Amino acid sequence: MTDRPSRALWIMRILSALFLLAAGGIHLYLVFNGVGGMLGVLFTLNFVAGLVLAVAVVALRGRLLQIATVLGLLFLVATLGALLLALTVGLFGIRSTWDFTLVPETVAIETVGVVVLAVTTAMVLRMPRSA
Question: Residue 2 and residue 20: Cα distance in Å, rounded?
Fold first, then answer.
């Protein structure tokens, strides 16, 4: 009986890691395809953060896993929020448009990623302390 929740949690952790990698990977792709300057540096840091969080969500256990999933969720909420701000009122003087490279795909991936990370975080926070 305890095997099923454990398997479900592992599936959610892997899916969470994939969404974190996808979000970071999109930013790295944009750096290699024309986004430069300070925005390019921030996009590179975004990739590094996504990579580190993806590894943490899969590799850590216990309290550190709880922290990693919460940080992963906050990371995706922040990147999605920043993109939505850039699409509407602008962010740091930068305005983006829906026809810019990978914007619709990024919104879709990060939106689904937020949902997946929210479920994963809830599952991890509800785990017994001994797990």
Answer: 27
Return the structure tokens found at 43. 């996009």
Residues comprising the chain, all counted: 131
- Write phi, then psi, for 54 (nearest 5 degrees): -60, -45
Name the CA dihedral angle for 50, 61, 5, 52, rounded to a multiple of 10 degrees. 10
Dihedral sign of CA atoms 53, 55, 58, 62 in order: negative
This prediction's pTM: 0.90
pLDDT tens for 58-80 read 999 999 999 999 999 999 999 99
Condensed to tens digits (0 to 9), the pLDDT of residues 81-93 reads 999 999 999 887 8
Q: Which two tokens stand for residue 97?
A: 């448009």
Who contacts 35 (Cβ-Cβ below 8 Å, separation ≥6)? 43
* Alpha carbon distance, N-terminus to C-terminus of the chain: 15
CA nearest neighbour of 53 among 86, 92, 25: 25
Q: Give the list of residues 6+ apart from residue 119 with CB closer than 8 angstroms, or none.
A: 12
